[in-house]
């Protein structure tokens, strides 16, 4: 609370100064303007964090290239490279707290550590590509410094405000356009002063709207190729085109030109009107007549990003499945029987002989549409993988979330991506809810190759319907949607949703509650105090600075827990491991 209030107070103060300060020049503070000992601590903290986040051998080149570029960015001497290389290779982890304290002792950073987030974002976007691993690193370092995650989100949104203003300028009257150009020219002059101490790069001045307080603080973001000095330049436009994909249309610009295999329908529907530097794709697991007859219905309250899409796929078959599910539960199986079935599943003694004969006699009602959709979901997942690999969404991190067969689409998407080259750095987080896929850890290991942040497995132990459709399968006792996935990786987060989900259909009906439980922001909580959404925060609604301090003090404890295996959240109140 204290850290967030301090940050908000700083924003408010700078905004007032911007409104009344007239011609006051913005301050431009970049990482290389820190004293050399603090620049060393800054780079070391990033190196240690990279090693903790991405220790795998296949991530070695990313860690090494990142730290080499970052040493140059901070204008550190080349003779520090051996030490930094050692940090990214896993040595010196015990120095996390010391390096953090050194950074926070800087007078300017002590007042506003958000400048570190700004600088890391600037570095990560310098070539027009926003790697998901870089965003995860920014979240990690920001959290260690006690910076609310919303600080990063505001900085990202501010960049888009700049782009929006640039486009609006083209369609306004000549007088308004002239005034804007004059103001932009003045800002450009200030930015070039700061640029002279940094070297080449496209400079984007954060102006207007949400960006106003950041402009007052001099939050100029450095992106891209040498020689360009404004967003309107050819190079600057090229950088933004790289970030946002084909002609800036993003995923809405994708149309399946011809039938792919057995797939008949595949289209991205916008859930929001905004644009963002990271996007979210939601995947519905079935459709049914009435309130939930559209792909977008379950996700109406989700607000994980300003740019969200819903995948529309095979609606004819998903509608048949949804109506079959509805008929099965509301017609053939009464509530008392459902409770009995739930108890049977929870007891762990499910066999073909324990299912009621009355249920087995109508099994074909669900078996046929389920089998069809089970096959098609795998095909759709593989197709989605190639869409993402082709960067139709641009060079931006993607979060995937889905329930039931939608989660299965995600699972097969990730499995397909893991077999391809250049698949890393695209996916930030994935959330699989009630996933009808195998739950053995060996089948999930491949997912860690392509997911940079969290792999959340939301399950319900008493989901009798999911158990029933797997009754003839050899993997019926190892279904991810029924149990935790025991994967020894820091990305793996198991969440027991049994207190929220009473049956498989609740994944659609209780989606608002489930989203909050897994740490996904909704419209309802948009204005509430944030902090629980941090990728690394072990608590909710507490001081981020206090959380960061506690985390640094318990780093060894967390590491021991990670080594023990994927963490299981016993209740849906914890959003991260």
TrEMBL record:
It comes from the Eukaryota. Residues 534-546, 568-577 have a biased composition (Polar residues). It is a multi-pass membrane protein. Its main location: membrane. It is found in: Membrane. The chain crosses the membrane at residues 190-216, 222-249. Residues 1-24, 529-577 are annotated as: Disordered. Keywords: Coiled coil, Membrane, Transmembrane, Transmembrane helix. One of its GO terms (cellular component) is membrane. InterPro entries: AB_hydrolase_fold (IPR029058), DUF726 (IPR007941). Residues 551-561 have a biased composition (Basic and acidic residues). Residues 149-184 form a coiled coil. Belongs to the TMCO4 family. This is TMCO4 protein. It comes from Panurus biarmicus (Bearded tit).
């Amino acid at each position: 609370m204290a850290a967030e209030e301090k940050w908000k107070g700083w924003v408010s103060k700078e905004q007032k100064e911007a409104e009344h300060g007239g011609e006051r020049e913005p301050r431009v503070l970049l990482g290389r303007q820190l004293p050399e000992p603090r620049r060393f601590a800054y780079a070391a903290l990033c190196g240690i964090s990279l090693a903790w986040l991405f220790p795998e051998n296949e991530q070695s080149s990313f860690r090494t290239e990142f730290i080499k570029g970052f040493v140059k960015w901070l204008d550190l001497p080349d003779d520090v490279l051996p030490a930094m290389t050692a940090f990214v290779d896993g040595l010196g982890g015990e120095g996390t707290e010391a390096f953090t304290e050194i950074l926070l002792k800087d007078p300017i950073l002590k007042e506003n550590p958000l400048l570190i987030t700004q600088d890391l974002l600037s570095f990560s976007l310098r070539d027009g590509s926003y790697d998901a691993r870089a965003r995860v690193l920014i979240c990690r370092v920001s959290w260690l410094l006690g910076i609310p995650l919303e600080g990063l989100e505001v900085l990202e949104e501010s960049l888009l405000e700049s782009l929006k203003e640039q486009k609006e300028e083209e369609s306004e009257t000549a007088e308004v356009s002239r005034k804007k150009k004059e103001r932009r020219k003045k800002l450009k002059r200030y930015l070039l002063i700061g640029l002279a101490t940094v070297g080449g790069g496209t400079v984007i001045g954060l102006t207007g709207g949400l960006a106003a307080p950041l402009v007052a603080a001099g939050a100029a973001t450095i992106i891209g190729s040498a020689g360009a000095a404004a967003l309107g330049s050819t190079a600057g436009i090229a950088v933004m085109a790289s970030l946002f994909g084909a002609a800036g249309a993003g995923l809405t610009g994708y149309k399946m030109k011809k039938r792919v295999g057995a797939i008949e329908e595949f289209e991205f529907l916008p859930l929001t009107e905004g644009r963002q530097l990271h996007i979210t794709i939601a995947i519905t697991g079935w459709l049914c007549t009435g309130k939930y007859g559209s792909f977008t219905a379950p996700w109406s309250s989700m607000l994980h990003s300003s740019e969200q899409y819903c995948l529309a796929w095979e609606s004819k078959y998903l509608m048949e499945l949804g109506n079959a599910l509805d008929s099965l539960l509301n017609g053939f199986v009464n509530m008392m029987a459902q409770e009995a079935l739930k108890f049977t599943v929870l007891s762990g003694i499910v066999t073909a002989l324990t299912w009621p004969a009355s249920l087995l006699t109508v099994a074909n009602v669900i078996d046929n549409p389920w089998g069809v959709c089970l096959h098609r979901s795998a095909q759709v997942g593989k197709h989605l993988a190639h869409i993402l690999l082709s960067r139709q969404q641009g060079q931006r991190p993607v979060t995937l979330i889905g329930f039931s067969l939608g989660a299965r689409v995600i699972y097969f998407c990730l499995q397909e991506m893991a077999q391809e080259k250049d698949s890393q750095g695209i996916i930030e987080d994935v959330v699989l809810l009630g996933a009808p896929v195998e739950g053995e850890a060996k089948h999930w290991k491949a997912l860690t190759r392509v997911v940079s942040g969290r792999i959340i497995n939301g399950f319900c132990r008493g989901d009798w319907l999911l158990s029933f459709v797997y009754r003839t399968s050899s993997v019926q006792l190892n279904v991810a949607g029924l149990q935790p996935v025991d994967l020894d990786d820091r990305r793996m987060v198991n969440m027991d949703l049994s207190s929220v989900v009473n049956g498989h259909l609740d994944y659609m009906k209780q989606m608002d509650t489930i989203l909050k439980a897994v740490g996904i922001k909704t419209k309802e909580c948009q204005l509430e105090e944030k902090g629980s959404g941090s990728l690394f925060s072990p608590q909710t609604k507490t001081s981020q600075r206090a959380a960061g301090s506690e985390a640094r003090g318990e780093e060894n404890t967390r590491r021991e827990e990670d080594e023990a295996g994927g963490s299981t959240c016993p209740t849906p109140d914890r959003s991260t491991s």
